[in-house]
Amino acid sequence: MGNPDRDPEEEPLCVETLQVERKRITLMLRENPRGRFVRIIEEVNGRRDMVVVPAVGLRGLRDALDRIIEAEESTDRPDSVLPT
Fold this sequence. Notes:
Blueprint: E1 11-20, E2 23-32, E3 35-44, E4 47-54, H1 58-73
């Protein structure tokens, strides 16, 4: 099995990478014969987890993240107690 980031059938259109504490999170907009999608990869201590979201679900994902951000910002909790 090859590297999932290097599938020759998938054409990368955009890549964004975030470093959050000890985690590296990479978001890739890709395209293959079945359509466009975003691949989200979390890397921490050599371990990689991946989620794929079809492009038709991106607005829903954004809306859900906006609601989560609003909920997090409305709570009085220091950043140091948030899970990593």
